[in-house]
């Protein structure tokens, strides 16, 4: 170590020459661009491929007709049906980015549905019902977040509690019945349309825009990613990791509340047993298909939406293909496995290597 | 006499780091051989190579005149080398007896003979004066007992060489003596024991021979009886110091004007399980060094300053105003920054880009609402990449892909961007290759010249003495002495560390 002081001047050798630096600077922006584009390629390809398969199966798949002030067609149908999972996926992206997971969103949908349905049969205004419904979702999210960040319970366990209890709460609110209501204003959330597109699609678009602005035009997104990658280092930088996690779970609760209202408005009633059942798993899948790692870190809301669209398109494809319904789940699993493998750089490299080896073998 | 185990010219490289370079180590039957060195000296790596947990890059492992390659720890165990690692590596949900004999249980008709296992376990533990229920779960017992069980397991398996990595860290004085009694017994039976510790008194009590490592290189092999403690500390921390200290620019005369203006004052600071009754003044524009062996309280001072450890008594004040520090963000808002000791777990956010790693602390200080635009981020990042000569093609490269030295520069840039009044650096040059090492030292010097107050912890004394205005020596979590002016030489610091 005696030369440590002497090499201060020798340190100049390590410096990059000016030309190097100039080249490096030019490369900086390039690399940044191609990096973010690269993340979109595989999920978008998978979606395009699925749509192409549908076109082969049904030539009229892409046709959209305009009738009675709204658009009809398979594509519109996919957008509309994917709305609940897409909403859940937005919230789930934030939670997964912090290194957590939220299993309770399906149950929160049921609770919010039950709360809204039971309020709608009283005299309370629809506007108040919506506000109370959204607040219920946020409250559920805050409970999850508090369990995770302040009591340090593992996310999967903390949210499993509400996943199990939530459906019970919803059943209690409904007193074991399916509660139905007649309210055209509220029903419009699920079945209404505006400028030709179904209301749920508008809700997804609005939520995506709002969340995108919230996380990318402020530092929240960066804080979420920092906490998800390394919570300890984030704390050393003065980021309050607990608040960040609390925010993510609250957002997941809010998104679940909107999805729950769509589901309730759709059937004009609250079915505590079936509303949002297993949708948390589809939401997690959508986020994973979008390329996020369950260990936390980088996330993209747009990619998660594409993930949700892939799941819904796949479901439609299976129906369109006319395969017996009993194959549905199996095919879904296989296609998703392929999409996930395609996204893995390691897998792609292995494939390339195999191709190279076989090519050499031929010569 | 033939050594039972001999390692010749061992080198071990990790990407970007030379962990070991041309190290020799030998151990004879019936001796306790202490392996010493500061953190990052390469002790653990050497042990891992010796026990097959890591493969060596170059060199030979010789047992009974035959060169061996250990691919796995099991291969090393078969050759009679057993290891008790620093952290207890046992299964808390199994019984004590199961833990002792896991993998080589006494069998009867091919099934585990529980009765024999219980008796053998009790016999084994009686050597350690441990009278516990061997059929109870290990988790029921204290860390000290678990540590003793781990050692007993190593002893039960040991044939020729027993490696004990920091076995006494969680033991009290009496338990240490019991352990030493067992070690003496094993020594008389001809077992060779490699003993790694930070407690120098224990080295002198039990060991016959000492090998000292520093920065991945072997400093020397000594007979314990022939090596005075001061010489040992000198070997651990670095030699040829007078020569180096003469090179330093005369820091005593610098910043004398700022002497009256106290930037940060520790008065009578104590924290639970941390420093005790600690007093320190860091005058504005001065660099204060913290010296001491590992566990002496160096890092704890930084943690108390940065709001990570809560104070149980005393106060820390800045410019006469007492600070309430309950979390790092409190310290950051008060103008205090800390480059933590463990760069990997507390410093870098590996998957995020260099740009993001640089601006994060500033952004956290500004709050989530006042977002730095991408252009501003890029300007800041480019400025520091150029200023600190961070070797990277672009600011969007994930920081995890940089070398240790460049990562450290990014973390320095992160805190410089916040423009703190006081910057604490905990081991800023650890695990960094020699070129970057010098650059970081030069940077620290220039910061000091620019008027920033610095509190620098380092186990490399020549570094500290080279740039510090004052060095505070810690021992057993208390301040031993402060050295400045003419007294500030590496030898004085070393003496203070060794003798208190």
From TrEMBL, chain A:
Gene Ontology cellular component annotations, sorted alphabetically: plasma membrane
What InterPro entries does the entry give? ABC_transp_permease (IPR001851)
GO MF term list: transmembrane transporter activity
Transmembrane spans: 40-64, 85-112, 124-143, 155-174, 194-215, 246-263, 275-294, 301-321, 327-344
Q: Give the source's domain of life in one word.
A: Bacteria
The subcellular localization recorded is:
Cell inner membrane
Membrane-protein topology: Multi-pass membrane protein
Q: State the UniProt keywords alphabetically.
A: Cell membrane, Membrane, Transmembrane, Transmembrane helix
The family note in this entry says:
Belongs to the binding-protein-dependent transport system permease family. AraH/RbsC subfamily.
The protein, known as: ABC transporter permease
**Species this chain originates from:** Thalassotalea mangrovi
From TrEMBL, chain B:
Annotated GO molecular function terms are:
ATP binding; ATP hydrolysis activity
Give the UniProt keywords, A-Z. ATP-binding, Cell membrane, Membrane, Nucleotide-binding, Repeat, Sugar transport, Translocase, Transport
Database matches in InterPro entries: AAA+_ATPase (IPR003593), ABC_carbohydrate_import_ATPase (IPR050107), ABC_transporter-like_ATP-bd (IPR003439), ABC_transporter-like_CS (IPR017871), P-loop_NTPase (IPR027417)
Q: Does the keyword Ribosomal protein apply?
A: no
One GO location term (cellular component): plasma membrane
Q: What is this protein called?
A: Sugar ABC transporter ATP-binding protein
Could you tell me where this protein is found in the cell?
Answer: Cell membrane
* Keyword Heme recorded: no
User: Which part of the chain is the ABC transporter domain?
Assistant: 5-240, 259-497
Give the matching PROSITE patterns: ABC_TRANSPORTER_1, ABC_TRANSPORTER_2
Topology of the protein relative to the lipid bilayer = Peripheral membrane protein
Give the classification, highest ranks.
Bacteria, Pseudomonadati, Pseudomonadota, Gammaproteobacteria, Alteromonadales
At the top level of its lineage, which domain of life is listed?
Bacteria
